[in-house]
Amino acid sequence: MSESTELSWPTVTEAAAQLKTSTRTVLRKIAAGEIEARKRPRLGAKAETVCNPADLQKLLPAAHVMPADGASSAIAAREPPAGRNALGLAGQAHLQNFLDRLAASLATIASSQRPRIEEGTGKRWLTLQEASEHSGLSARLLRRAIQAGELRAIRDGKRWKIERDALDRFDPETISESAALLQ
Q1: What is the rounded CA–CA span in Å between residue 183 and residue 100?
Q2: Partner residues linked to 156 by β-bridges
Q3: Each residue's pLDDT tens digit, 29-63
Q4: Any residues with CB less than 8 A from the CB of 183 and at least 6 apart, and which?
Q5: What is the pLDDT of residues 94-111, one digit of tens each?
Q6: How far apart are CA 48 and CA 39, in angstroms?
Q7: Which residues are bridge partners to 127 per DSSP?
Q8: CATH of span 123-181
C-alpha cells in the first residue's frame, strides 16, 4: 500500500468520532477483525494505530432515507383518534394527577404557611409548632404557659405535646405574672 493512501487513514480517536462511539469500542472492533488497522510511524514518538476508512464506512449507521411516494408524510400527519390526544387516556389521567399535585404544592408554597390542623382530623395531641399554627399564638408564649403550668402538655422526648382541648380552652390573657417572669 502506498504511503499517501495510508496517510488518509484516520487514527483510532478520529475513527471513534466518526462512528460516534468510544475509542475502546474501536479497539475491540480492531481486535475482532471488523476494522483493518495498521501502525503509522511518527517522528520522535510511538507509532499510532490507524484504521481503514473503507471498514469504517461499512460500520457507519445507515442514513434514513425517506420514501419518495409520500407514505412517510401520511404517517407524520396522522392525527390521534377523536377524543384522545397523543398521550392516550391513561397518560392524560397521569398528567392531570401530576398537574393537580403541582398546583396544590405551589399554593402551599405561595401561602408560605402549613395547612392548619382541622377539627375533624381527630388528632388529640399537637406538637408545639402545630399548636402555634392552630391557635395563632407564638410558640414562645405557649412554651411559657406550659412551664408556668397554665397549659396542659406532656414531654415526648425533647418535644412538647399539647392537648388540643386544653389549647382550645387556653386564654392567653390569663397568663400569670410568674409565666411573664420566665421570659
Answers
A1: 45
A2: 159
A3: 999 999 999 998 888 889 899 999 999 988 887 65
A4: 144
A5: 788 888 888 887 777 766
A6: 5
A7: 161
A8: 3.90.105
**How is the chain split among helix, strand and coil, in percent rounded to 5?**
50, 15, 35
User: How far is residue 152's CA from residue 74's CA, in Å, rounded to a whole number?
Assistant: 75
- pLDDT of residue 142 exceeding 50, the answer is yes
Q: Which three cell numbers stand for residue 41?
A: 510511524
How far, CA to CA in Å, does 153 sit from each of 70, 165, 169?
78, 11, 13
- Average pLDDT over the chain, rounded to whole? 77
**Separation of alpha carbons 115 and 112, rounded Å:** 9
Residue labelled with grid coordinates 414531654 = 155
C-alpha to C-alpha distance for 145 and 135, rounded to whole angstroms: 13
Extract long-range pairs of 57-63: CB within 8 Å, 24+ residues apart: 59/19, 59/29, 59/34, 59/35, 60/18, 60/19
Grid coordinates of 135 = 391557635
Task: Indicate the domain borders of the chain.
Answer: 7-59, 123-181
